[in-house]
């Protein structure tokens, strides 16, 4: 009897460490608090489907898909609501880790419709991006590509660079990210997350954006917690020169 109990406990522990999911869906809310003018809200829903089950193993739950090189398709819809205008935005994408190699490719397509109710005008813009990457060691991705947009009044396409590295640091795991966008529109961003345990992370980020000769710096504080392996909650606070944005997201994995 004791042997049976011990065997059951071992199997249960094994099942716990090999928990897997294949899809996720999330809902988000962002509150825009400008220095001048009225506030605004953004509502979103997103989803992701992995070609193969993602196993958590002994990695931080938030990095299990990346460290497991999980190919996926993803999509997102968001609705931005302000007093005199609103924006509908649609995005779809794919990430593909080439089997039996260290190569990676990704692509994305988006479209947003902005309606100015005060002037009764509408603006459409399509965005797109593609990149190729290489993973020289486990946990490190280096990628380069192109990103652009085509709108009713303007269009542009520029080169991009991106890096992501997840690695143990002392007794913890950390995630480091960097990305840059060059050309007529310039952008660069840095971010880091510290995993206090496999289910909880806290992080900071900074980004500098220049579009239409208007420069904006944004500082971000963020945190994410897996309440269970199936459920996560996260929050963020973004501080910039003209407005602050406070966000929250709830996600379910299955």
Number of helices: 2
Structural class: mainly beta
Main β-sheet description:
14 strands, antiparallel, barrel
Give the class-level CATH name. Answer: Mainly Beta
CATH topology: Porin
User: Helicity range of the residues?
Assistant: under 10%
Judging by the overall fold, what is the CATH architecture?
Answer: Beta Barrel
CATH superfamily: monomeric porin ompg
C-alpha Rg (nearest Å) = 20 Å
Instruction: State the end-to-end CA separation.
Output: 34 Å
InterPro entries: Porin_7 (IPR031593)
Organism: Acinetobacter shaoyimingii
Keywords: Signal
Protein name: Putative porin
Give the secondary structure arrangement, pairings included.
Layout: H1 2-17, E1 20-34, E2 40-55, H2 64-67, E3 72-81, E4 85-97, E5 103-116, E6 121-134, E7 140-151, E8 155-169, E9 172-181, E10 186-197, E11 200-211, E12 214-228, E13 231-240, E14 243-253
Antiparallel strand pairs: 1-2, 1-14, 2-3, 3-4, 4-5, 5-6, 6-7, 7-8, 8-9, 9-10, 10-11, 11-12, 12-13, 13-14
Structure, explained:
There is one protein chain. The protein starts with a helix and ends with a strand. It has a single domain (2-253), classed as monomeric porin ompg (Porin, Beta Barrel). It is mainly beta and 254 residues long. Helix content is 8%, strand content 70%. The protein contains two helices and 14 strands, in the order H-E-E-H-E-E-E-E-E-E-E-E-E-E-E-E. A hairpin with a 3-residue loop joins strand 7 (140-151) and strand 8. A 14-stranded antiparallel β-barrel has the order 1-2-3-4-5-6-7-8-9-10-11-12-13-14.
């Amino acid at each position: 009897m004791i042997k049976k109990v011990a065997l059951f406990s071992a199997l249960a522990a094994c099942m716990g460490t090999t928990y897997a999911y294949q899809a996720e869906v999330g809902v988000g809310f962002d509150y825009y608090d400008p220095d001048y003018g009225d506030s605004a809200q953004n509502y979103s829903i997103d989803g992701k489907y992995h070609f193969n089950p993602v196993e958590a193993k002994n990695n931080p739950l938030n990095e299990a898909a990346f460290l497991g090189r999980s190919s996926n398709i993803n999509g997102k819809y968001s609705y931005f609501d302000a007093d005199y205008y609103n924006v509908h935005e649609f995005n779809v994408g794919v990430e593909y880790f080439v089997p039996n190699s260290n190569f990676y490719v990704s692509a994305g397509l988006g479209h947003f419709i902005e309606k100015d109710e005060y002037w009764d005008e509408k603006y459409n813009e399509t965005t797109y991006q593609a990149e190729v990457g290489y993973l020289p060691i486990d946990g490190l991705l280096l990628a380069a590509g192109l990103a652009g947009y085509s709108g009713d009044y303007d269009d542009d396409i520029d080169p991009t660079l991106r890096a992501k590295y997840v690695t143990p640091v002392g007794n913890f795991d950390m995630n480091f990210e960097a990305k840059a966008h060059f050309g007529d529109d310039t952008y660069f961003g840095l971010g880091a997350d510290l995993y206090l345990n496999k289910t909880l992370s806290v992080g900071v980020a900074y980004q500098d954006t220049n579009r239409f000769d208007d420069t904006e710096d944004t500082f971000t504080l963020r945190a994410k917690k897996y309440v269970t392996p199936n459920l996560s909650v996260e929050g963020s606070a973004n501080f910039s020169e003209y407005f602050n944005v406070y966000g929250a997201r709830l996600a379910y994995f299955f």
